[in-house]
Write a structure and sequence with these properties.
Blueprint: H1 8-24, E1 30-33, E2 36-37, H2 38-41, E3 57-61, E4 67-71, H3 73-82, E5 92-95, E6 102-104, H4 105-116, E7 121-125, H5 127-132, H6 139-154, E8 166-168, H7 169-172, H8 181-185
Parallel strand pairs: 1-5, 2-4, 3-7, 5-8
Antiparallel strand pairs: 4-6
Pfam families: NmrA
Protein name: NmrA-like domain-containing protein
GO molecular function: pinoresinol reductase activity
Length: about 190
């Protein structure tokens, strides 16, 4: 993930330095690109400050069409465990990109509206407004905004191709029955 805004940039730079040190030391590794945890992004429809679904109004970041990849935390663990004795993942990045869970914020909201039978009022937040929320905010809020900016405004989770020397989990492990976002959201009805 590419972070160009502090304080998320410092954390990302630190993680990349650790990865490089592991590679330079020739320590076998598998890097897991887990994308976004469903528990933090799905039920709240990507809203800050709550983990529960909004009842009346939802903020849509940008035009709401940037795709993110949402995974149930148990599915992340399942894919990760499968790599332990798998020589196909040694010294590679494993991207967790199950096709049914690659969706935009608008699509996530539509799924929730379909499940509840209720339309939410939508407010669209421009990139400038989103970044302006960092000013004077608590460090954790600043971090959340800086971390989420590339997701909502740049589509960083889906604007690339899996390269040679990398793997995609749902193709490598087609036997895993991952949790679809709609199935996940039904727990909040």
């Amino acid at each position: 993930m590419f972070h160009k805004h502090e304080p998320a940039k410092a954390l990302n730079d630190g993680m990349m330095a650790v990865r490089k040190a592991i590679q330079d030391a020739k320590i076998p590794y598998t890097a897991i690109a887990a994308n976004v945890f469903a528990g933090y992004y799905a039920p709240n429809l990507c809203q800050f400050g709550t983990l529960m679904p909004p009842k009346e109004k939802v903020n849509i970041f940008g035009d709401g069409n940037a795709k993110v990849i949402v995974l149930d935390e148990d599915d992340i663990a399942t894919y990760t465990i499968k790599t332990i004795d798998d020589p196909r993942t040694v010294n590679k990045t494993l991207h967790l990109m199950p096709p049914m869970n690659i969706l935009s914020q608008n699509e996530l909201v539509e799924i929730w509206e379909k499940l509840t039978g209720k339309k939410l009022n939508k407010s669209f937040i421009s990139a400038e407004e989103f970044l302006a929320m960092m000013k004077g905010a608590h460090f954790l809020t600043q971090f959340g905004i800086a971390h989420n900016y590339p997701l909502y405004y740049e589509g960083c989770l889906t604007n690339f191709e899996v390269k040679e020397g990398e793997e995609e989990a749902s193709k490598l492990y087609p036997d895993v029955k991952y949790t679809h976002v709609e199935e996940y959201l039904k727990h909040y009805l």
